[in-house]
Amino acid sequence: MQIKKNIAVSETGFVFDPTSGESYSINKVGQEIMAMLKDEKTPQEIRTRMCEQYDIDQASFEKYYYDFTGMLRQFQLIEEDE
Amino acid sequence: MEKQQFERPYIKKLQAGMPSKFGMKPKAEPITHIDDNSVADLIGEFGSPVYVISEKTIRETYKRAHHAFTTRYPKVQFAWSYKTNYLSAVCQVFHQEGSWAEVVSGFEYDKALGNGVKGSQIIFNGPDKTEKDLKKAIENDSLIHIDHFDEMYTILALSENSGKKPKVAIRINMDTGVYPIWDRFGFNYENGDAWDAVNRIMINDKMELIGLHAHIGTYMMSANSYKIAAGKMADLAHGIDKKYGISIKYIDLGGGFASKNTLKGAYYPGSDTAPSFEDYAEAISSGLLNSELDPRKLPTLILETGRALIDDAGYLLGSVIANKRLSSGHRATIVDVGINLLFTSFWYEHEVYPAAPVSDHLEETTIYGPLCMNIDVLRESIAFPLLKKGDHFVIKRIGAYNMTQWMQFITLRPNVVMIDLKGKPHIIREQEVMDNITQQEKLPEHLA
Fold it and tell me: Is A10 on the interface with B (CB under 8 A)?
């Protein structure tokens, strides 16, 4: 699973999808996760990094991570691994 | 290195359209403290959920209302509407401020007596007064507001055997320009029923007609309706004086003043649209003072305002149980406050605030209570911050009706805490325990 190549993410938290023309806003944690997905980090790597940086345990983070990627999928911003 | 505070990741589709022309704040300001007590500490000490009542707010609100009326009309008496909130501590704050009691059942009547209210300062309203209740009220010189002819004849019969002449008022309903007309309480003004009731009382001469009462509606957004009601009641009082030579001692305009809560379906928030105490006071006093009433013997104005005096003083504190997404992708948050504790969520869009600072991000969310019932919805859709499991929140303006219309359903009812004028919290109703429920039950022998 990774962010579609043509998705643009600004430093101020705006996401633009040139295929659909839709724009989105994301919060800081969402922005960091998107950046790591773009860098093709695995869910485990993302979880470890975020739990080091933020006051959150691994199980809770995993719950919010999958909820977030579910929304990315719903908005068709990601492409699944072949 | 200190870890950063985590906020759950969030993405929101931006919708092109008209910006809010009302300038609503895009951010949910937290309510972190209530009268200098932190929400987290209150929940830590008294559990979650917990009702919190600010004594300071009650007294300040009462003083504002009292000032609005006493600066416009010479004789004003408030009577605390027990059904709005009859927790003894709440009633006592109002009684200390000078309120009489307004009750609508034998249970409430006894509660008022238990709170030390003099019988002569209890107004007995409501359609269901038993013979036993009425007998007690007659003995105690309470002010009995007659709702229907059946009640009138019960009082007449009781007065035959009593050495006392019952002190009564008649309840009057009328057209005040607000529809549907509340015509279920008392006698109608326009069709002559009210005069009929007056005539029967005067002819029988077994009761002392000392007042006129009207309860024109609830959550009345039109102050002018009270002006119409006050004018009609003043005309009736003047007519009684002319016909029978009796001065009505008081005119009771009941309750029904709106609080600042927003009704479901309302376009503007209640905080912008609900009339102020000054608006109501101006309407009522001008209705009375501009009437034919003799200014040398004006009747006392009694007010039974409940909701508008207590709503702001009540808070309901709770915690997030879980977040989930509905099939549409819409966010849902489950909290530990259900509709059994927040009965008013059936007609209000209650304001829900985070209890700690949050980011600017808000997500359209449905807030569900913890009951295993589909109807347990506190808010269908609210722009809500990104709270996580365990985060606390505060529901504002819940002081009216929720602590009387609450239901013991599926769970037990929580603590109710009052914060005194010095900022000290006191439990004024302990959370229920299993025994409170089971001790009322009886098990037939064959099932034991």
Answer: no
My answer on whether B354 and B402 are in the same domain is yes
B113 & B170 share domain: yes
Does one domain contain both B38 and B185? Answer: no
Question: Helices A43-53 and A28-38: crossing angle, nearest 10°?
Answer: 140
Which residues in chain A touch residue B28, judged by CB atoms under 8 angstroms apart? none
Mutate to test the interface with A, among B5, B11, B365, B384 (most CBs of A within 10 A): B11
Q: Are B261 and B397 in contact (CB under 8 A)?
A: yes
Q: What ipTM does the predicted assembly reach?
A: 0.93
> How many domains does chain B fold into?
2
Q: What's the whole-number mean pLDDT along residues B303-328?
A: 95
Query: What pTM was estimated for this model as a whole?
Result: 0.89
A28: closest chain B residue by CA: B9
End-to-end Cα spacing for chain B: 62
- Shortest CB distance from A75 goes to which of B7, B13, B323? B13
Among residues B386, B312, B388, which one has the least CA distance to residue B351? B312
Cβ-based contacts under 8 A for chains A and B: 70
Residue B181 confidence (pLDDT) = 81
Percent of chain B with pLDDT over 90: 79
B11 near A CB under 8 A = yes
Question: Which range is least confidently modeled, B65-69, B136-140, B174-178, B194-198?
Answer: B174-178
